[in-house]
Structure formats: structure tokens, C-alpha cells
User: Fold this.
Amino acid sequence: MPWDRNQMAERAAQELEDGMYVNLGIGIPTLVANYVGDKDITLQSENGMLGMGPFPFEGEEDPDLINAGKQTITELNRTSYFDSAMSFAMIRGGKIAAAILGAMEVAENGDLANWMIPGKLVKGMGGAMDLVAGVEKVVVVMDHTNKAGEPKLLKECTLPLTGTGVVDRIITDLGVLDVVEGGLKIVETAPGVTEDEIREKTEATIV
Amino acid sequence: MPWDRNQMAERAAQELEDGMYVNLGIGIPTLVANYVGDKDITLQSENGMLGMGPFPFEGEEDPDLINAGKQTITELNRTSYFDSAMSFAMIRGGKIAAAILGAMEVAENGDLANWMIPGKLVKGMGGAMDLVAGVEKVVVVMDHTNKAGEPKLLKECTLPLTGTGVVDRIITDLGVLDVVEGGLKIVETAPGVTEDEIREKTEATIV
Amino acid sequence: MQKVYESATAALDGLLRDDMLIAAGGFGLCGIPELLIDAVVDSGVKNLTVASNNAGVDGFGLGKLLDTRQIKKMMSSYVGENAEFMRQYLSGELELEFNPQGTLAERMRAGGAGIAGFYTKTGYGTQIGEGKEVKTFPTGPDGQEEHYILEEGIFADLSIVKAWKADDTGNLVFRKTARNFNPPAAMCGKVCVVEVEEIVPRGSLDPDHIHLPGIYVHRIIQGEHEKRIEKVTTRKREEA
Amino acid sequence: MQKVYESATAALDGLLRDDMLIAAGGFGLCGIPELLIDAVVDSGVKNLTVASNNAGVDGFGLGKLLDTRQIKKMMSSYVGENAEFMRQYLSGELELEFNPQGTLAERMRAGGAGIAGFYTKTGYGTQIGEGKEVKTFPTGPDGQEEHYILEEGIFADLSIVKAWKADDTGNLVFRKTARNFNPPAAMCGKVCVVEVEEIVPRGSLDPDHIHLPGIYVHRIIQGEHEKRIEKVTTRKREEA
Assistant:
């Protein structure tokens, strides 16, 4: 049975190691925070915070304390605040060990498209381009296919790119794939999912 | 009679207007602070401070509080501290209204040489190149001639430059000159000094 | 030198003109210069280019300046929260220059720091890099050449910024994530006007705790802020 | 993750090698990493390139590493306080790359911010600009083209830095003008080791008062500092 959203997030959490500074994107990546367990992980919010805490208790929301998804959050005893220039200095400068992001398409060479569908609603890339350009390890969490059942892991992306050759690992509802020389390599399958099923639902070269 | 060091500093202080943020170089420029009177002047020290106060009382020196000349100083109630990158961001970004600096040579086009005598002791430019490149108004305070009586206001500098076309006004022991189209213009003479004497002791074109 | 003004309108007096470039602080609705935006609306100035990470929401923040059609062009990284923005953009009434968020912040800082341009990897090989100069630098782990694109500093005519506290010399302190784009936006303006929740006496801010020195601040007002929250998210006490 | 180490020697263990590039904080003798410099001396590592605004004084600060001939090259803006430096430089034993002070600070910050290069007016038309790319940008008051030179980010192998306080996650607070080059120097190192006067418990630093977030800090030691003053200048009480 393919993984559900929470199982994908739980699997993604295994990518994180003690001591890492990590940026989590919006959507399923946000759920990863629920599964880090005892690991000493510091979450960065690119609007200017290291050490992001959980949502506040009702009535304790602070309009001056939000995350990059504009949600009210709280601070921890390790928290620091800084401005947007400093925030992206550390992102661009390679100080964030891992980013876990959503994606619309990933190509077999690690190209990523996750910010724009031409002709449809155009919202913008926010911090995604900076993150994929600067962060050491980029992990993508996404559905393996679109709603029509068509592959989202492609030979080449069809949508405007967020970055070229930036993805290291892909976690889908069907399994875990790494971007390697020559294409994607299946690292793990979800319970009951076969490598053949993954191959069938993937356009990218599986090596 | 030509101005002495303190009179030159006093004259230079007239260049400063209420509300200005100002950087003073080492030597005579430092003395300018003694003559600002009631004007609301904020002194920048490029090692990371705005609002430089006077020397501390004996016994109250703080090793963490020095100026760009490495002298112990004090803070004021308007003081802020910042790092060297921010300090030169404001200098390079044109936020400092005026810099008052010493000089070895000034050319008639505003070229300035004040950091190096080849073959002699080489100390370095410190923040001088950034200051002259970024600050709105650059005022030079210097002796009109060297110890041998030779002009230091030249057609062209002979020493390595600190900046090209950067000097706005020159205050010497003999008077005040502006860098204008075509050369230097005498704005003021020290008491008892004639324009002819200045012309005679100046190699640069006087217009 | 008197930096403190009575009202947002008084503080903007003489600074506004059509076709100007304004840099605005804030992220989403957090730390936005609410009062100054209202005063810009009231002034009726038009054909503005606004550099701001977001464009507010419908009817609040920069959304107000979109409703009145005073904005010609936005320089932003994310504009997904504003339906009127989308309508004007898709109908061609509004120009939009997308900037990656970090590039936008760095471009503002650069303008305020006298840096005319800088090389970043962000956006190389994407639409954002199209038409921009590409250069390689040997910054790879083993000295390999990597591709960078040239981004230029933003030199704004005016900065509008929200801080938490100021003293009367303009030294600023921000609070939590409301700091965000406010310091870089403040730095890049020829003139910078700041609204704060409280103006405190000189000497009451610790000089080591000042986030932006007063040299970057030309005019200050104090006022009441709505500080609207875009997405209230909470947890129940029993979850604790 | 354990960032706190017992001693400077322990904190540098495994990080030092010949021919490496070290970025050091401090201005003059103010805010210099005294203890880490001593440990580098003890290590005997050699052929170092050191990016630091100054080179210490004879027998103190980086002057110690000059006395032991462990430094091959300095990247500095001002080296006037050190006779041994001058002797080695004039005799050709030591390389010296002069950087304008603001260029040096910005090059360090750039390296730590993933900016491979930037354009500055500083040094254009001087020796410093020789051999560097020149580009014009329309940044003059009326849009005139102005000349800029390309300066590259500094990407150091190791940063050695002095702060006032740290918590055990590496969040740093500096004191007065001892901040100076320490944050940019810290930013540009692959690994950053920091010495502080006091390590405080997590949660005792206000998150709004942290000058450099712990993400830039890999190892920390606490120790006693001499904090030598280079030029004691005072005024008499009766002058007040």
C-alpha cells in the first residue's frame, strides 16, 4: 500500500540527522516536524528565524511571530531572529544541511520544477530558488504521479525550473529514489509496492 | 599667519552641519570633534560604532570600546554598535554625509593619495579607500606644502592613489580650496595669507 | 535634527511623486508599514514601482494600493494571497518582476551598501536567469567552476518600514519575525520613513541591541497598528 | 550535537592543516581570538594564509604567528602596528594582499552568504583595482554610469572568532566595538570555532539580541582573555 501524507513525512524525517539545521517547505514537508523524535534538529523559517517551535496555544498567537507559510508559531530556548538578508545569507551560503520541499516535477538529472504553471495561477517562487541553490541536501516529497496517473518524475521537466540538477533524493507515495549518474535509482519501496510498479509509473530513466 | 593644527581643525568643523553623520580620520581630523560646538553631529567610527563619545576618565578604559585609531573611547546615549560589514555598508552606501581626512597629495581633479609611499613603510589603506568612494562630501585637511616647502596640491598625484576625483574641499594651513571644473578654486585664505602666496605654493591649476 | 513627525502624512510630505520606486518592509502581513501605506493611498501618487516580498492581501497592506491602481509594477517573490493582484496581473494592467526571496533581500541590502551588483547561484538555469550575465567562479568543493548570475542592487527613492521601537535619533529595534525585510528595505532608500509602536527616550535602547542604526532612518512616526494575522494556527492545550 | 569543547586545542583538533586559509575576527587587538591564536601557534601548522583586518602587534595576537613564521600570506587592510610584519614583508618572506577595510569585511560576508563576487566603487582607479574586472552601473545621481570593480567572496577553510557570550547551541552575542570583523569572519569559514568569555544556558539570551545565530558556529570554548589595550587614551576628571 502506498504511503499516505503522514507516512511520507515520517519517511522524510529519517533523512534528518542529529545536529542538522533544516528548512521545511509548505505542505507535506511541514508535517516532517512531527516525526523528528529525539533528534536535535533546528528548523529554519526563511522569514527570519532559527529554532521554530510548535503552533501557539489558542489565544496566545503573536502577530509578530509567524513562519514562512504565514502561520502563527512559537519560539524555543534556542531561537534566534534575524532579517531576510541574513536569513538567505545562511541559505545561499550553504549553512542549512537539508531542505525538504514539495515538487510538481523532477527530472532524472535532478532538475526541479515547483513554482509555476504557465497560464494558470502564478504565485511566485518565494524562497524555493534560493533554497535549492544553496542547501547542501535537497529532498523532495511529492506524489509519484499526478491526478490523471501520469508520471511526475520525468526525463525532462516541462514546467519552468526552480533549479537545475539540485535534487538529491525523492520521496513519493511509492518509495524513495536518489538522483544518480544516468538517472534515478530506487532506494526503497513503500510496503506492498514493487520496483516494477515504480518503473511503470516513472518516465525518468531508472538505473 | 597660517593656521596651526587646531585652527585647521576649527575651520574644518565649519564644514559640518546639524544632523550630519561624519567620519573623522586620524591626526588633525580627530581634533575636529573639539570644535563642533552645539551642532548635532554623530561621529562614526568605522570599526563599528555610531555616536562616538570622548576619551574615558582614567581607570575607566574598556578594552572592548575603541575607535578606528585604536584609542579607548566612550559611548553616548545615541550610540549604536554593529559589525564591520554593516559599518562599511553605510559608508559605501553613501549614508555618511562627510568624511574629514588627512592627505599626502591632492591633484587638481580631486585625486587623493594618502595611504602609501612606495619603498617606505607600507601600512595600508585601512578604511580610507571605502570612505572616499562612498561618502558624500570628502574634506581633506593637510599642510599646503611638505617639509621641504614643495607643493602637495599637484597637477597629478605622484603617489599611489586612494581614490580618483573624490576630494571636494581642501583645508590647508594657508586656506580653503575647492575642487572645481578645471582645477582648484581658492575659497578662503588664512589671516595674513594672500591668494598670491597660495598660488605660489600650489602646483595645481588655480582657477 | 528632528526626525520625529506627527503623522504618516506629515512624515511623507514632500517625498512622494508619480513613477517613483518604493521599497517596503514586511513579510506577508507581518511587520508591514500599515500607516505609511495608508498615507501613500491618501496621497493619490500613482504609477508606483514597489519592491516588497509580498503584495499584501485584498484590502489590507499593499493590497490597498492595488485596489486604488496606484501601483504600476511589483518586484516580489510571492504574490499568492491577493486576488485583485492576480486579476490586474493576468489582464496586463500590472507589471510583475519576480525575484527569488533571497535575491530580493540581497538586492535591497546591496543597494543600501553601495554594491551595484552581485553574483548568486540562485536562479541560474531558470527563467530568472534569462538575460542576466552568467559568470563562473571556482567555488565548488574541489575548486570546480560553478555558475552564477549577476543581480543588481536596488536603489529605491523611498523606503517605508515598520519597526517595534525607535529612539528619536532613529535607532531601530524590531520584534521577532516582524524584522524580516524591514532592515534591507530601510537600507536601500534614498530617504527612509519608519513607523513604530513606541518612540523611546534617547539612551533607553542598549547600543548593542539596536538592529538598524539611525543613520539609515530619516523620519519616524509612532502609531497604533492593527497587526492583522494572515493565518491563525494554534494547538489545543491538551496536546501539550 | 555537542558544540562546547574543553580547550582551544581540543576545539581545533582535526581542523588544522598546512596551507589552509583562516579568517580571523578582531580589529587591532580588540575582539581578537587570543586563545585560538595561541592554540594555532602550539599546533605548529604552517604556510597559513590569514584574512584579518590587522596582523596584531609584536608578540601579541596574530603577531605570535608571525614570530613563529607560520603565516605565508596576510589579507589585511592595515598592518602598521607590527615591526616583525614589516621586516618579513620587506624582506620578501611574507606575502601581503592589501584589501580596503570595507572590501575585506564585505568579501568575508559574501563568502558566508554564497555571493561569489560583488561590484564596489572602492579602489576603482587605484592599485587595488588593477587586474580586476571593471563594470559600469547607472547609479549616479541622475542615472550616470559609474565605475565599479569586481571583488570576490572569501571562502575560508576555518574561522577563528571571539565573542562575548554564547549559549551551547552557538548563538553569539558580542560587546561594543569588539564585534567588528567577528561576524563576517565567522560567516565565511567552512568550520567556525569561537572563543567566548562566558557560555550561558540555553534560553538565557534574548532571541532578538543574538548577533550571530548558532548555525554559523561549529565549536565553542570558554576562557580567560587578556584583552590587551593597544592605545590607552583618557581625559582628566576636571575636564568633564
Remarks:
- The helical segments of chain A are 5-13, 28-31, 84-92, 128-134, 195-200.
